[in-house]
Automatic annotation (TrEMBL):
Source species taxonomy: Bacteria, Bacillati, Bacillota, Bacilli, Bacillales
Protein name per the record: MFS transporter
Superkingdom as given in the UniProt entry: Bacteria
The entry's keywords: Cell membrane, Membrane, Transmembrane, Transmembrane helix
Principal location listed in the UniProt entry: membrane
Native species: Geobacillus thermocatenulatus
Coiled coil ranges: none
Length: 415
């Protein structure tokens, strides 16, 4: 992983990822202090998720028309300008036009929904096939570390300074990321538009491409079904459920909600570091991690959801993070090695849509079950969802083997 393009990619995306968290912290803080209403702040993640869902659906239209590097670099540049305008708007008095703040947040999230599939699609293009899993492990570890550290760092900056200071820091990070994306040394082939129709038909055909690619590829289709059920199961880890869990089952202070979240992300960082260190062993045993990962997560979720001891809850949370990271890295690598290069952005875009849909469904479903039937029943449902994912994985067990993945060819050209 000593290639120049990979360094440009991970450094540039690290600045962008830090900036993404920082600006959300600043906007949420600003809206809460301006309105003193939790709903005003809670609408921020709602609009972010909604925009990610919409952009995930329409992203194939852009993939069919523009090169990946063009989308990634100009997308980051547009985010920079949007953040600049948002900063000016907040400073000049947004208290009378709060709705416009949500428009800016939605537009930035929309661009993220297009850029996110591109980041994953570029990995098999800029590193050798033997280094894909190691590269994924490194990038996922870095991403989880940023999620773990950016929130407390951003909150500290807001407390010591102001939301505007944090936005200005984010703006600087976005500028650096934009420059690195434009300098990303990738030679792309001329874009070949596979959709020749015009107007609405062209629009619908472009959107359909990603779903057709996913359905035709046995790896992508299996992973999509697994992601759907696991996304529902992951609903027990949303803030509302964990807050109720801490108060009603563990009977400890509210600060334990933060402890559980931190330990979970810490577990994912540990899992990623282990994958980087032992990348060859993890890859050769990827079938084991994909087959038994969902069942192990189901067992850990059951233990977590039934324990009344805080220390054990932290332990199970860390284990969950480690196992989840191993499984995700292996599935991501398998997908990258067994899908055509020109299909990867479309397939990852579909994965993003599935994640957005399941997040919304699971948040409502798990909260409803917890309120009506109790917190433990929501964890029981989560366990069932992970078992279904494991059953799907077991039925397709042959396609997860290391030897089968090595046979897969990354065909096609970069868009």
């Amino acid at each position: 992983m000593k290639k120049k393009p990979f360094h440009f990619l991970w450094i540039g995306q690290s600045f962008a990822n830090f900036g993404d968290v920082f600006y959300i912290v600043s906007v949420v803080s600003y809206l809460y202090h301006l309105t003193s209403k939790a709903m005003a702040a809670a609408l921020v993640p709602f609009f972010v998720t909604l925009s990610l869902f919409i952009s995930g659906i329409v992203a194939p239209i852009f993939f069919e028309k523009y090169k990946l590097k063009t989308l990634l670099s100009y997308g980051q540049l547009c985010k920079t300008f949007l953040l600049l305008f948002l900063s000016l708007f907040l400073q000049w008095g947004a208290e009378h036009h709060i709705a416009i703040v949500y428009v800016f947040v939605s537009l930035i999230a929309f661009l993220d929904g297009i850029n996110n599939p591109i980041k994953n699609s570029l990995v098999p293009f800029i590193v050798s096939k033997e280094e894909i899993l190691k590269a994924n492990s490194f990038l996922n570890t870095l991403d989880q570390f940023i999620k773990l550290s950016a929130w407390p760092i951003g909150s500290l900056i807001v407390s010591a300074g102001s939301p505007f200071l944090l936005i200005h820091i984010t703006l600087l990070f976005y500028i650096v990321s934009s420059i690195l994306m434009f300098l990303l040394p990738i030679q792309e082939h001329t874009k070949k538009n596979t959709v020749q129709d015009k107007g609405l038909k062209n629009f619908l055909l472009s959107i359909r491409l990603g779903w057709e690619y996913t359905w035709r590829n046995v790896h992508a289709k299996s992973i999509s079904f697994m992601s759907f059920f696991e996304g529902i199961g992951n609903g027990v880890w949303i803030s509302a459920i964990l807050y109720m869990y801490v108060k009603e089952q563990l009977h400890v202070g509210e600060e334990w909600w933060g402890y559980i979240n931190s330990v979970f992300f810490g577990g994912m960082v540990i899992g990623g570091l282990l994958s980087v260190t032992f990348s060859q062993s993890v890859e050769k045993n990827q079938q084991f991690f994909v087959l038994f990962g969902p069942f192990c997560i189901a067992a850990v979720t059951l233990l977590f959801g039934t324990t009344t001891h805080g220390a054990l809850a932290l332990l199970y949370s860390a284990l969950y993070g480690i196992i989840e990271q191993w499984k995700v890295i292996c599935l991501q690598t398998i997908l990258q090695k067994n899908a055509r290069m020109d299909a990867l952005p479309h397939v990852f875009s579909v994965q993003g849509v599935i994640s957005s849909v399941t997040f919304g469904i699971s948040a409502l479903l798990m909260s409803f079950i917890a309120d009506v039937y109790g917190i433990r029943f929501s964890f029981y449902l989560s366990v069932c969802c992970f078992f279904i994912s494991g059953w799907i994985s077991y039925r397709q067990r042959k396609i997860w083997s290391y030897k089968e993945s090595q046979k897969g060819e990354i065909t096609g050209t970069i868009l």
